[in-house]
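Board notes (copied after class):
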Amino acid sequence: METTDICDLASSAAGIGSGRLLSPYRELLDPGTVGLGHATAKCPATVCLAQTRATHYGLGLLVLGDWVSQHPLFFGYSASQAYLPSGRLAIAVSTTNGPAAPDGHSAHTIAQRIAAALAPAHPIPYFG
């Protein structure tokens, strides 16, 4: 997610999401995490996320329904890049949270809204 600007973030989303920049691509999308993860008494479902075929961690990537994504959130910085391979659609959002910003992952929420407008048949699911 380290990029020079928002256009670079969108370009890397397309390069990563299409597999053009990664090898071996399929292994990165399905490293064997499907079936792992579940809530426990010490780890709520909002943190210990179930890894399903539809939503799971890859190696440095997230599979979110039909999308390949990354969305870091730390120290007031929020970013989301998502790529829809079937539509060759890249979305990139970066936000900085100020003191009055609401809790949550603002860039990912915005990316979900953009996806809903541009590709309504392919929503980006919530995944942490």
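Comment from the instructor: The mean pLDDT is 85. The chain is about 25% helix and 20% strand.
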